[in-house]
Specification:
The structure holds 3 protein chains of 3 kinds. Chain A is an all-alpha fold. Chain A has 11 helices and no strands. Chain A is flat and about 80 Å long. The N and C termini of chain A lie far apart (52 Å). The chains are: A mainly alpha, B mainly alpha, C alpha/beta.
Chain lengths: 270, 249, 253
Amino acid sequence: MGDGIGFWLEYLTNGKHLAWYASVQYTLIAALIGGVCALLFGLGGAALKRSSIGPLRLIGSAYTNMVRGIPDVLFFLFFPLAFEQLIELLASRSVCSAADLAANVGVWPPCPAANWLLTQTEYLILAGVSLGIVYGAFTANVISGALNAVPRGQLEAGRAFGMSNGQVFWNIHVRQMWVYALPGLSNCWLLLIKSTSLLSLLQIVDLVRWADRLGAPNFNRSAGLIHPDWRWAYYLALLAFFIVLTFISEKVFAALTRWASKGMAVGAAT
Amino acid sequence: MEFFAPILHDISLFARPAVFNLYFALASIPIGFVLAVFVALGKASKNPLIARFCQGYIYAFRGSPFFIQLFMFYSIMLAFNLPLWKPWGIDWFVLHPLFLGPTILALNTTAYTAEIFYGALMTVPKGEVEAARAYGMSRWQQFRSVIWPNLIRIAWPAYTNEVVFLFHATALIYFTLPVIGDQRDLMNTAGELFEKDYNAFLHFSVAALYFLVISLCIFYVFGLIYRRLMRHLPEPPRVKFAPRWMAKA
Amino acid sequence: MKRLAIAAAAAFVVLTGAAYAQTTTRIGTEGAYAPWNFVNADGKLAGFDIDVGNELCKRAGLQCEFIQTAWDTIIPNLNAGNFDIIMAGMSITDERKAAIDFTADYSPPETSSFLSAAATAFDYNALKGIKIGTQGGTIQAAYADANLKDGNTLVSFETADAALADLSAGNVDVVLADNSTNQETVASSGGALKVDGPQIPIGGGVGAGVRKADTELKTKLDTALAEAKADGTIDKLIVQWFPERGPGPYYKK
């Protein structure tokens, strides 16, 4: 028995497994970048939707309705590729010679010097921003609704006290908005961390990719331990990991809701 | 017109793959709907065992990514192939993406829909249920006459959203399950066409167009159903300021 | 505005790319095809391709770095410039030669064979009604598509590992792959798998892929390869990674 446990402990902490555990950082980094971007895009989108200028309202409306029609996977795959192509297109205008461009019609990139080498770090940042854009649309809806839910009387009281528009907005409107926005924001955050499982589609070697490699049956002695298909066990571990992440996020948001509802006349207030 | 030629050509290329996405969605919606009612009722049950089980099921499937659920179920089914499916002779069926895809999707959507139905169940007006009990209706009659109509009306808008998200989730299926023969779905096709000529803007946009159009159709159809469900309520006034001959008497 | 955008783009490209793009030669490999290229128990890339690559780089005086990339986009990635050489057990075929150039082969031309479970038997002269697994984008997949499609189901997998997993789970009946790899798999499978049926010659040896424009790099690699073949280094590596193939000689006269 002791031999068995010792073997498993050693196997589960060999270099390949340690690389798997370390790849959690990609999930967390992508989730954090995505979360911050989603909040920024959400605030921007909500501002656009409430703007007094018609065309801006249209843009805001189109942005928030985008996620109702397009799967997040599609946008997630599209944005990094499109961004890379855009940068390479701009670069090729200045770096490529006319002869190169003529010779390479229909080939991408237009000339070798215009190629933008993307490593995992760049893909990670692009993935985070793309997650932010998609979930920013959700967040814009949530924040827009929350801004509408703040009682008008509070804003009028602020104006009556002689506060300027900006003061009313930041000190009263936004400050009181959070407690109405937090349930929706918590929902968006949970959807976002679940979407980080898609990072492997962008060639980032994340949790899912490592689980696939570690679990795939190995029939070659030189490649390591010979074992049958263990992928179901590794995926079960990933499932448990995400459920734990969800659980922790829910607890954090409950604490945030308690903080935001101090002194407010809402059911969640302490 | 020359600008539209490649777009129209792409639209024709994506037509057959779109059918696969629609099939996955249509195959899992009814099953998910029916099971969700049972799971929602189970979560609200007085029996602690059933309630805990349903609660745990909903928590597990809502708390984990659908992508990983697909991988996990496929590898579990594969692990059971030699001991179970092959001896029973059903391995060709059980491991086929056209069966497995809707199955896993149905399990997932059951959890999300059950949570929506449970929330709606909690907001059914208590007075109506008590009145039904006072009339001596059985549990089944109570459910059929009072609980179910209220539940479906309250849950319908959120359920509409869930169906659209389910349709979006079908895009993930062929990333995880094996591609047999020349079955393709929208995302597969977009990826393959992109690999050939690196035109990300064209191919992914056309795939997005298909998703958008079908999502709008789902919203429209479900909107019609909602209007029918709410037909007992007065229509909201259409024209705000009307000349006298237009205004109702 | 346009100049600002171009300047920003150029700055971005310079910051991320130029630091090492000129000095290090990047070699793309798959990392999921033991014993050619795989990730070992320490989490590092290892295998026959990696050893040959390091040997060639040493002789050619190049600073090399191995990059792991997906198999199905490996040629477009090479042409796009994301790495400079492909060493991923890639066979030399006329179809691939249309897109890229190859060095001389560093593994002699060999056959492909059918891998199947030990207890099964098929009539390989008239295959009907069975499921054939291959890795997508390989010469075996192209062969199966051209010759074995009628009456059989072709299943395409993203990696060779996935095809083996389905075979050992009984989900596909046979897997068509390189014979040398199959022999190694059989040797480690403890009698569960076997190689059966005809040996089909597909492809012309395994070579390193380079972009068509990189003639200088190709010459450097070919010179280094010729040296390594002449003094028996390649032979030694083949015997080390493919013990089932026999002691050779392969290249050393």
